[in-house]
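Hi R.,

As promised on Friday, here is the backbone we talked about, encoded as structure tokens. Could you run it through your design pipeline when you get a chance and send me back a sequence?
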């Protein structure tokens, strides 16, 4: 499956638009990560535990996005975007969305 943030795919023509597809995951924080993040905030720097958590969540959201496009018979997904939002103090949602298309 081709997926891209661009609205077109070089040297390919979009035959038809199949619709908007999404993939999301709600990821909760791990108490150990919270403790380490609290300590890290004192001295500054990257919160690697959270970075890893968000990378994993983004990968899951992308897999679900592709699976939804596959169900529609898509060849590609264009205009892919990612958003994040806080669901609770202890959990965040990562959502991937784009337009499933059929290519010529």
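Update: got your reply. Pasting your designed sequence below so it's all in one thread:
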């Amino acid at each position: 499956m081709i997926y891209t943030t661009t609205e077109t795919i070089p040297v390919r023509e979009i035959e038809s638009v199949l619709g908007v597809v999404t993939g999301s995951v709600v990821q909760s924080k791990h108490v150990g990560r919270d403790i380490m993040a609290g300590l890290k905030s004192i001295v500054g720097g990257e919160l690697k535990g959270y970075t890893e958590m968000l990378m994993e969540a983004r990968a899951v959201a992308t897999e679900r996005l592709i699976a939804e496009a596959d169900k529609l018979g898509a060849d590609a997904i264009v205009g892919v975007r990612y958003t994040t939002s806080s669901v609770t103090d202890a959990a965040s949602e990562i959502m991937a969305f784009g337009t499933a298309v059929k290519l010529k």
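One thing I noticed while checking it: The mean pLDDT is 87.

Thanks again,
M.
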